[in-house]
DNA sequence: CCTTGCCTTAGAGTCCACTCGAAGGCTTAT
DNA sequence: ATAAGCCTTCGAGTGGACTCTAAGGCAAGG
């Protein structure tokens, strides 16, 4: 069974040893120790950390992650709470994607404009402005 | 013609007066002044600021925004540079959306799993893992 | 008249997630 | 044997974008 010392593990997952010790301190990832107290990580740790990184990549904060880990440690009784938490994170992420797409639409319209691809008729501009207003309204609904 | 004092403008655009003065200091938004040196903002400033906020919302940094504003101030000779800059920002934003969607896919799969909606057959799990590996590989291409 | 809002400069504080350094001491690899 | 890697604690530094305070003063509305 393959194991990794902290330096190898860091290289494998693309984090620094500092960060790994920091995550450990925060309770996110608890490696094993050998007879000399040296940390070692297993393939299971690789999978778990990659999952953590996916969660972080959705915008989940350290604090939410810590909550999640604590709930997990408490066993099956907390699956409902975990679900609520993950649903929150997911809907935040959806909102963020939507916001990004809206902002990007504006940016790309400006790019088109710079490239002279937009017919600069009053009608067109006005309809795009109306569209933007609608987007801005929608963002306020959050 | 409607104008706004800084407090009204702040309320209108949803920023603090601190932030508006900060943006001004950074050269992003330069309001007019009345006879007593009090700032006032026009409808054009509203539009410009909203555009700035859309750009910021795509992930464009202060520093990029400052570059953009400086180029703009230099006139038509810089449209090419502005286009390059905006293209960069747009492709970064696209990448960020893709990353978010990938991470969200993992999160939602986990949610499904919690809800018992996933057939926990070895085959299914393995194919999902293969899928994740593929996503992770793709992220490395950036 | 008095409160509220605005003006200035300059600097300090905040938040988040790391990131690093120091110091002293084991352990592992070549 | 020697270097490279790892161990600890603990505190300080980083970056980005604000966010706020202080101090002293002018200006408009009720």
From TrEMBL, chains A, B:
InterPro entries registered for this protein in UniProt: DNA-bd_dom_put_sf (IPR009061), MerR-type_HTH_dom (IPR000551), MerR_fam (IPR047057)
Presence of the UniProt keyword Transcription in the record: yes
Membrane-spanning segments: none
Regions annotated as coiled coil: 90-117
SUPFAM superfamilies to which the protein is assigned, alphabetical: Putative DNA-binding domain
Keyword annotations of the record: Coiled coil, DNA-binding, Repressor, Transcription, Transcription regulation
Domain HTH merR-type as annotated: residue spans: 3-71
This protein's record includes keyword Transcription regulation: yes
Protein name: Transcriptional regulator
Stretch forming the signal peptide: none
Gene Ontology molecular function, alphabetical: DNA binding; DNA-binding transcription factor activity
């Amino acid at each position: 069974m393959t194991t990794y010392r902290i330096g190898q593990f860091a290289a494998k997952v693309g984090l620094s040893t500092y960060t790994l010790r920091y995550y450990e301190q925060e309770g996110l990832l608890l490696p094993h120790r050998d007879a000399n107290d040296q940390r070692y990580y297993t393939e299971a740790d690789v999978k778990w950390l990659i999952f953590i990184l996916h969660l972080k990549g959705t915008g989940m904060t350290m604090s939410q992650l810590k909550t999640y880990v604590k709930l997990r440690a408490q066993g099956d009784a907390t699956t409902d709470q975990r679900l609520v938490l993950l649903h929150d994170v997911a809907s935040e992420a959806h909102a963020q994607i939507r916001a990004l797409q809206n902002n990007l639409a504006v940016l790309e319209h400006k790019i088109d404009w710079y490239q002279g691809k937009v017919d600069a008729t009053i009608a067109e501009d006005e309809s795009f402005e109306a569209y933007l207003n609608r987007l801005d309204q929608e963002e306020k609904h959050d």
